[in-house]
Amino acid sequence: MSDSLFSTLKNLKGNPRACVYTEPLWGLSMNLCMPYISVYMLALGLSDTRIGFLVTVNTFMQMVFSFISGPVTDKMGRRKATALFDIIAWCIPALIWWRAESFWFFLAAAVLNGTNGITSNSWHCLVVEDADKKQITRIYSLIMAFGQLSGIFAPISSVLISRLTLVPAIRILFINAFVLMSVKVIILYLASKETGTGKIRIEETKGKNIFQLAGGYGDVIKIILQSPGTIFAIVIAALGWIVGTVNNTFWQIIVNKKLLVPEAILPLFNVFRSILAIIFLFFIFPRFIKGLLKIPILISFASLFIGQLLLVLIPAEGMLKYPLILVSLVFDGFGIAGLMMLCESIIAIHVNPNERARIMAIRYMFIMIAASPFGWIGGILSDISRNLPFVLNMVILVIAIIITLFYYRKENDHSAEH
Asked: Would you give the end-to-end CA distance of the chain in angstroms?
């Protein structure tokens, strides 16, 4: 039922409640400015290739920190690791982005932001380890929806850009991001507690250093290889991450530079995208995912493919481009929101709970290894033609559909409710 998410939201307790209830602060801080970082860098003189290179550096650093995220999360605990590395990965880079003047500022921020390879692990452990397994899909739907709340306030960005021009407006948004993200870190730390599994792992890892703990990854890889569901979840998450990275980096560029949409109008598209995501996550996906997972996954990939194809085909001349961009965003929004929620849910369902932190570390590391070249590749392609990064995405999405069909031909499907 469409009210199931509202019921879930009302009845959340403990760490899931703390994580979900603080998530709007993410949407109102980093999510309010990160969609514009590519055009912000362009305005400060960076080329498409350099922007793509920075994305690759950031992804590589996430890969490095993902490798040690399991041991760090187990040794520090989920709660402390999340608080510390949220500050390093988001609060400090927000200040650097605020004062950025050249490529080197963005490079420093990209390196520090790469430490979110640890929080991507620790925060997800904090969310799900004490949660009712049957609620996991709904919890992730709430998280995705709250992360989109920034779109409601995107007209503020539009007004700032129209009155102050792009660079001063984005600088203000990064200051806002620093303040609200800091508030989020503090509230989440105070409102949460260490998970049951986290307490056990803290005791088990006492007296062992990070490198000793990382040495146990061989056994963890064996556990992963024995679970086809975990392998599948990692592979489709990696493909979805690549598509999302290219799309997030170059969407604003193609719309602004190829389709000649004024910078002040760009935030309004985020309003539309965010409202769509909230509608999908609250009212469509609760019904959409009650059955088996194969069909929702395939529809999400196909929807994203259509959105990318439309974006490439939109003509730059005339007013028709505006409604066509909106139609493209409908398909993009449905596909991206569905994949994000489904990928996190599938891995949470299949993962061995006793080795969650280290399995998630391997998962993130594999995703980053797979995704790391595509920022730079996308930048090189965009310098040749603004369309080419999205053609690349379409090829990847076709591969993802084929892999999904092949997996479910051999393996049993699973209900999102179980």
From this structure: 17
Domain-wise residue ranges, the chain: 4-410
d(CA 158, CA 173): 11
**Encoded amino acid at 118, one letter:** I
CATH, domain 4-410, list 3.40.710.10, 1.20.1250.20, 3.30.70.100, 3.40.50.300: 1.20.1250.20
Kindly give the confidence (pLDDT) of every residue in the chain, 418 residues in length, as a single tens digit, with 9 standing for 90 and above: 345 677 888 888 999 999 999 998 988 888 788 888 999 999 999 999 999 999 999 989 998 898 888 889 999 999 999 999 999 999 999 999 999 999 999 999 999 999 999 998 899 899 988 887 777 778 887 887 787 776 677 778 888 888 899 999 999 999 999 999 999 999 999 999 999 999 998 998 888 887 777 766 777 788 888 888 888 888 988 999 899 889 988 998 999 999 999 888 887 887 787 778 777 777 776 666 555 678 888 999 999 999 999 999 999 888 999 999 999 999 988 888 788 777 777 776 767 766 777 787 788 788 888 888 898 999 999 999 999 999 999 999 999 999 999 988 876 655 444 4
**C-alpha distance from residue 155 to each of 5, 31, 169 (Å):** 27, 14, 12
What gap in Å lies between CA 348 and CA 100, rounded to an integer? Answer: 38
